């Protein structure tokens, strides 16, 4: 079991994994648990820091270790700020998603490259003034990590989709059939409740952000397919549990294979973003 050390100096980790529904722990032993308070409040839970393939990795369960925090109540700003205090430069997000397409089956891993935001959350930026910045989210996901994930998935023999558009809704309810139809018509491929504003807050910290989305269901069903029922929470839990072995294998590989030094553009996103400088 990890030991809690809330009063010791913070460890350092350049890679962080944020666990979504179904992934509430990462290390079996040897990890240090740290409690971090930020000016935005407390993160979802204690952060565990341990070694994976010789690299220091931080782990934070997005919904809390017992899944007590619903999507719309997550303190996203505190989560990202706490990881920043640990020196994190790269975030790998894991998340359960619904499919909006007959071509994207439950059990598949998807590496989104775009998102569409349909949430109505107020705490979505660190730049509330007087310091003002407008970051680019034209290409919000890190392609350097994507390239490594593709190679590692091929090696592990994981069934994956290398690009997709992810729709984020507020939650905690699932979509109506009409909403799912609308999201498909707008170009959405998969759907979840937590990707935004987590991804843009990480970007405001000049962190790399990459998502491993595990397809657990077909959202509200598929039009013209009476044999496919709307999603239930049991569906999500069951399919995620079936995928957990491959997910852990991929996370272990990524921790080993991601280059020590970043060569992507993520670290430069703030270079020309500021309207005012403090």
List the defining traits of the structure above.
alpha/beta, Rossmann fold, 12 strands, 24% helix, disordered N terminus
Q: Could you give the topology of this structure?
A:
Layout: E1 3-4, E2 15-19, E3 32-34, E4 47-52, E5 55-61, H1 76-85, E6 90-99, E7 109-110, E8 114-118, H2 143-156, E9 160-161, E10 165-169, H3 177-185, E11 190-192, H4 195-204, E12 208-217, H5 233-257
Parallel strand pairs: 1-3, 2-5, 2-6, 6-12, 7-9, 8-10, 10-11
Antiparallel strand pairs: 3-4, 4-5, 6-11, 7-12
Structural summary, described in words:
It is globular and about 55 Å long. The protein has helices at about 75-85, 145-155, 175-185, 195-205, 235-255, and strands spanning about 5, 15-20, 30-35, 45-50, 55-60, 90-100, 110, 115-120, 160, 165-170, 190, 210-215. Strands 1, 2, 3, 4, 5, 6, 7, 8, 9, 10, 11 and 12 form a 12-stranded mixed sheet that branches. It has a single domain (about 10-270), classed as Rossmann fold. About 25% of the residues lie in helices and about 20% in strands.
Contiguous runs where pLDDT drops below 50 for at least 5 residues: 1-7
CATH hierarchy class name:
Alpha Beta
**CATH fold category name:** Rossmann fold
Helix content: 10-25%
Count of alpha and pi helical runs: 5
Shape: globular
Number of extended strands: 12
Order of helices and strands: EEEEEHEEEHEEHEHEH
The percentage of residues in β strands lies in: 15-25%
